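Researcher: Here's my situation. A collaborator sent me these components and asked whether they could plausibly form a single complex. I don't have experimental data yet, so a predicted model of the whole assembly would be a useful starting point for our discussion.
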Amino acid sequence: MAGPETPLGSVIRLTVLQGQYKVSAGPRVELGTVLGSCVATCLFDPSAELGGMNHFLLPEPPASHAREEVDVHYGVYLMEMLINEMLCYGARKERLRAHLYGGANIRAGMAPIGTSNANFARGFLERERIELVRADLGGSAARRIDFRPFSGQVRCRTVSTSDVPDAAPQPRAATHRGDVELF
Amino acid sequence: MNRTTRVLTVDDSASMRALLNHALSTNGFDVAQADDGVSALEWLAVNEVDVVITDINMPRLDGFGLIEQVRGGTRHRDRPILVLTTESSDEKKARARSAGATGWIVKPFDTDKLVAAVRRVAH
């Protein structure tokens, strides 16, 4: 569960960087991120008053993926990690409600990664039967998202593309990736 | 004649089931899938299996409960059970081990490592 990072007034703001997810039930906690082609999922369980956010760069590993391409920056893993972390802290999957943001195609002429991310996120929620209550996806503008996990409130603003961090995935250490321990 | 190794994967995530199915079936395994511990037990009651791969956090019956019930039964009590999970805590790993798990694999899985582990415990 996320801890305090930058106290500001009465609100504790936590940044969810690319490839990360955070879960909190803190009434003063606000999870924030800035998105270009990446997608952020905000999940909320109103009964447990618990929420979480992830921020992924790419949807799924391709069928022909090389070993080094398997890392936690893929949406399919970050979605599951976010859901599992919420279940650990008392959420119930059938109560989860989702918001999706991002998926912009900021640079013309480049592969529409934002569209792929957005389509994956919608499809994932549909397959997992998680209710999508709000989506602001696509377009060509960057977005800043501020999410209150305790109440489920989300604010989505358009920001300058210069505020978007470069997509520079940092693969999880190889020693952790798919490690097998036989008892 | 060598029989194809049959693997039952148990995971509530449809996306993870699709990834596992692709990884295992393209490596020659016969794959069956269940979406939680209850569905897995129902399938195991009428089918044979060589290896079970299970998630931990699932609705109705979680991975710990599934392992305990398989180990407490008679039909599949000696079958290898690999836990495939995003959990990384030593406490949960110890709990899985004491319930009777054969091994512990941390997601995201590496196909080569997963396949090697399944082959190793299947024989």
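Model: Some features of this prediction you could bring to your collaborator: The mean pLDDT of chain A is 84. Chain A touches chain B at residues 60-61, 63, 67, 70-72, 74, 76-77, 79-81, 83-85, 87-88, 92-94, 124, 127-128, 176-183 (CB under 8 Å).
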